[in-house]
UniProtKB/TrEMBL annotation:
It is an enzyme of class 2 (transferase). InterPro entries: BphY/WalK/GraS-like (IPR050351), GAF (IPR003018), GAF-like_dom_sf (IPR029016), HATPase_C_sf (IPR036890), HATPase_dom (IPR003594), His_kinase_dom (IPR005467), HisK_dim/P_dom (IPR003661), HisK_dim/P_sf (IPR036097). Residues 181-394 form the Histidine kinase domain. It catalyses: ATP + protein L-histidine = ADP + protein N-phospho-L-histidine. This is histidine kinase. Transmembrane segments: none annotated. Its EC number is 2.7.13.3. SUPFAM superfamilies: ATPase domain of HSP90 chaperone/DNA topoisomerase II/histidine kinase, GAF domain-like, Homodimeric domain of signal transducing histidine kinase. PROSITE patterns: HIS_KIN. Pfam families: GAF, HATPase_c, HisKA. The lineage of its organism: Bacteria, Pseudomonadati, Pseudomonadota, Gammaproteobacteria, Pseudomonadales. Gene3D superfamilies: 1.10.287.130, 3.30.450.40, Histidine kinase-like ATPase, C-terminal domain.
Length: 397
């Protein structure tokens, strides 16, 4: 489709500080009194910049009939056209352009951008003859045309970069809004459910009602974990990763104990054996480590055997903090092992367990954020064992 609005081309050429100097130099080198940068399309010839000492009458934005110009031909063959005395030239003495505009001398160099796009021409004209036989003239003007083309390319790249940066900033703002709204809109009704369950529990005594309230509380705990996992997934994939705030913690063992007790309350059918020997002064984010453990415990309860206890160990080993969790039951299928710490991986491996498959992904991300690792082994004899390790500074007491 032919271009109808050339304001961007006029602005692009107008913003190149070197163009006025180039046009002045073209006039000086050629001895001609009119020089211009023209935008040439398949249907239009538009002057973008002009240096006129012969009152040709063309200003920036001015238009010539394309077919009346030689630039129409240059656009097709991409070669310079130069003649210094049209009335004595074997070809241009009868050409319509010199006759139409009363030209004797003419030079036009194509301006071609890096991607091969023909932008237009750098040209000079005069009504009197000019000596243009020196090859250095064409070479110099060709360099000027290339300089203009490179400036246009630089402007295009800069514009694309600014646009991409603006889009990235806007996307970042939308991501932050999305995460904030998601957290608020999901947490608010869940808080109401929990408060209502607590209020009702204080007022009912029959066993059936209390059982229902217990189920509501258990479900709200699971929903809370899911919400936090979704929010962390959004932060991790849409933002810059799951944030951690590491500090020296003297009561990490108590935090891990409370996490275990919460899971025991939520899953009374599960059996646990724990060995927690956590020193004071562990350098970590205790809330995130609690979340890591909660996700591992929830995974063990969901996928392990209820007939065998889940074994939790936490201890210092050298300069590392180690948290291991072992459950019995069917080993993890080999097809699932490479996907285990990827989000939504269960469906890819044909698993049908409930949940989004985010728990282990987020646990792994928390370990990574602590410059640590989360690994797993699984076989029928020893069970499935997840081991989280991360470097820590210890303050022994």
């Amino acid at each position: 489709m032919p271009q109808t609005d050339f304001s961007s081309d006029l602005q692009a050429i107008g913003s190149i500080d070197a163009v006025p100097v180039i046009l002045s130099m073209v006039k000086h080198i050629t001895g001609m009194r009119f020089a211009a940068v023209a935008r040439v399309t398949e249907s239009k010839w538009i002057a973008c910049a002009v240096d006129d000492s012969i009152d040709f009458g063309l200003l920036p934005g001015g238009e010539l009939v394309l077919e009346s110009t030689i630039c129409h031909e240059i656009r097709q063959h991409h070669q310079p056209v130069i003649f210094g005395h049209a009335s004595q030239h074997p070809l241009f003495s009868t050409h319509h352009t010199p006759k139409t505009y009363g030209l004797e001398s003419y030079i036009s160099i194509p301006i071609i951008k890096a991607d091969g796009e023909f932008f237009g021409t750098l040209c000079a004209i005069d009504s009197v003859p000019a000596n243009l036989d020196d090859p250095a003239i064409e070479k110099t003007l060709t360099l000027f045309a290339q300089l203009i083309a490179m400036s246009l390319d630089t402007q295009g790249h800069l514009h694309a970069t600014k646009t991409a940066l603006a889009d990235a900033n806007e996307m970042g703002r939308l991501r932050e809004q999305f995460i904030a709204v998601l957290g608020h809109d999901l947490r608010t009704p869940l808080s109401a459910i929990r408060m209502s369950a607590d209020l009702l529990e204080s007022k009912v005594e029959d066993k059936r009602s209390r059982t229902l309230l217990s189920a509501i509380r258990t479900s709200s705990v699971r929903m809370g974990v899911l919400i936090e996992n979704i929010l962390d997934f959004a932060r991790g994939r849409l933002g810059s990763g799951i944030p951690v705030q590491r500090k020296l913690v003297d009561d990490l063992q108590q935090t891990l104990r409370q996490t275990l007790e919460e899971i025991q309350v939520a899953y009374p059918q599960a059996k646990f054996i724990d060995s927690l020997e956590v020193p004071a002064g562990v350098y970590c984010d205790p809330l995130r480590i609690s979340q890591l453990l909660s996700n591992l415990l929830g995974n063990a309860v969901t996928h392990g055997s209820t007939a065998e206890p889940i074994v939790l160990k936490a201890f210092a080993e050298g300069d590392e903090m180690v948290i291991s969790l072992t459950n019995q039951g069917a080993p993890i299928p080999p097809a699932l092992m490479p996907l285990l710490f990827e989000p939504f991986s269960r469906s890819e491996a044909g698993q049908r367990h409930e949940g989004l498959g985010l728990g282990l992904y987020i646990a792994g991300q928390i370990a990574n954020a602590h410059n640590g690792t989360l690994s797993v082994t699984s076989d029928r004899e020893t069970g499935t064992c997840f081991v989280a390790r991360f470097p820590a500074r210890f303050k022994w007491v």
